[in-house]
Amino acid sequence: MTTESQNSRFRYRIFTMVVLLALINYIDRGAMSYAAAHITGEYGLDRGEWGSVLGYFGYGYMVGALFGGMLSDRYGPRKVWIVAGIAWSLFEIATAWAGDFGLAFLGGSALAGFATIRILFGAAEGPAYSIINKTIANWATTRERGFVVGFGLLSTPLGALLTAPVAVGLLTLTDSWRAMFFVLGGAGLVVLVFFMRIFTDRPETNPRVSPQELAEIQASRVQSAAAAAEAPGAPALPWWSFFRSKTLVLNTLGYFSFMYVNFLLLTWTPKYLQDNFGYSLSSLWYMGMIPWVGACFTVLLGGRISDLLFKRTGSLKVARSWFAAGCLLATTLCFLLVSQAQSVFAVIALMTLANALNALPNSVYWAVVIDTAPSNRVGTFSGLMHFFANIASILAPTLTGYLTARHGYSVMFIAASVATAVGMFAMLQVRPGVGPRMPARPTLQPGAAK
Predict the structure, then answer these.
(1) The model's pTM
(2) What does the alpha-carbon distance between residue 287 and residue 349 come to, in Å, rounded to a whole number?
(3) How many Å apart are CA 185 and CA 25, to the nearest integer?
(4) What is the pLDDT of residues 8-32, one digit of tens each?
(5) Using one digit for the tens of pLDDT, what is the confidence trace for 349-369?
């Protein structure tokens, strides 16, 4: 491959580094689940309290998701990447002393110590996916948007899949749950340094981008209806105009259902397998991976399918809304079957299928924001979507702890099916491209965003 050809694809180096950094972000948040036996044993936490520990992350995560998107619009994604990346890595390291911190300084409560550190850690991790969407909006062409969003979101299932072998491997090699957090926090800092050496907010200011590649990206922006809707020098819509868009609000509800499933499986699968089927830590490294294998493929496939549907039909409603609703219907049915399954093989197989179907439209929720929002509000509106959808990051682990303590583990899958059914009905009413206080999008040729 010639140097000119390589330079014309430089944006894919950016996308790859984004995925790598987000991958570490995801492993960081899920690693604690594999230290459940160590932490609950050391500090005497019961199942309900452990559910609370897992849920504390979500309180901070919601806030970080909200303000991360707004700050990336105002200051650019690069600065927010730096601050967030450093902060979440340091708080990941601090998790090693969270329980002792609570015992020493918060009234002798280890639970309060974990609450404090996990909330701050969640706030630092929260901006990541809003910044990813802002980065993609700045760097990707319109025709590749669905796939690139899917590529960025690959870090979700791949990170969850790798969390099992990474966390169990570190726990086994070091024989210390605290050392696991030291290693993961340090890895995040190293990757952040390499990423910032090549990343700029926009391709126009990056010397590694060739004139040919820059022309391709800029030409795509001209075709974008969201960009076309903005008059030169026009002020940005106020943040609260997000709530004037039925499409953005209902799309958020659809994304909530995805997040509910995601955090349910991420936080409770290890303990569920240990308690219900007697799996040991040495077995969890591969059993914990299985439910995420299919999702690693479908999250990429979903972006491609959405782009193909749009190319074939010229309708974002079909490519985004109907596609997502169909996937959520299938996910709902799978979780109902999981709740009735008795053998571990049936449970794992159905969980894997349900998770793969749930991940299939993951890129759709983020693409709908890019399709619908003005480009100078993509970060803000992505952050708002992420903020409200991430109520699930608190609700899923906390509600599961409450339900399973009283009714057993099967009920957690019924709750998941309810969440995805609600998301399905919401996505059926989503109309991508119809933004807040903006005129209807002009008709475009297939392949260009409405």
Answers:
(1) 0.76
(2) 11
(3) 9
(4) 689 999 999 999 999 999 899 989 9
(5) 999 999 999 999 998 998 899
d(CA 418, CA 336): 9
Distance CA 195, CA 180 (A): 23
Q: Which of 306, 321, 193 is nearest to 247 (CA)?
A: 321
The confidence score (pLDDT) of residue 390 equals: 87
Rg (CA), the chain: 21
Identify which of 120, 156, 64, 56 has the alpha carbon closest to the alpha carbon of residue 401. 56
The tokens of 23 are what?
A: 């991958």
Instruction: Return the C-alpha torsion angle 258, 261, 266, 272, nearest 10.
Output: 180
Please report the sign of the dihedral spanned by the C-alpha atoms of residue 124, residue 29, residue 336, residue 304.
positive
Q: In terms of Cα–Cα distance, which of 119, 75, 71, 76 is closest to 94?
A: 119
SS3 string, the chain, reads CCHHHHHCCCHHHHHHHHHHHHHHHHHHHHHHHHHHHHHHHHHCCCHHHHHHHHHHHHHHHHHHHHHHHHHHHHHCHHHHHHHHHHHHHHHHHHHHHHHHHHHHHCCCCHHHHHHHHHHHHHHHHCCHHHHHHHHHHHHCCHHHHHHHHHHHHCHHHHHHHHHHHHHHHHHHHHCCHHHHHHHHHHHHHHHHHHHHCCCCCCHHHCCCCCHHHHHHHHHHHHHCHHHHCCCCCCCCCCHHHHHHCHHHHHHHHHHHHHHHHHHHHHHHHHHHHHHHHCCCHHHHHHHCCHHHHHHHHHHHHHHHHHHHHHHHHCCHHHHHHHHHHHHHHHHHHHHHHHHHCCCHHHHHHHHHHHHHHHHCCHHHHHHHHHHHCCHHHHHHHHHHHHHHHCHHHHHHHHHHHHHHHHHCCHHHHHHHHHHHHHHHHHHCCCCCCCCCCCCCCCCCCCCCCC
Indicate whether 103 pLDDT > 80: yes
Sign of CA dihedral 265, 359, 362, 93: positive
Q: CA 190: distance to chain centroid?
A: 22
CB atoms closer than 10 angstroms to residue 66: 24
* Euclidean distance between CA atoms 186 and 392, whole angstroms: 28
- Backbone angles phi and psi of 231, in degrees to 5: -75, 145
Tokens 């004037």 sit on residue: 244
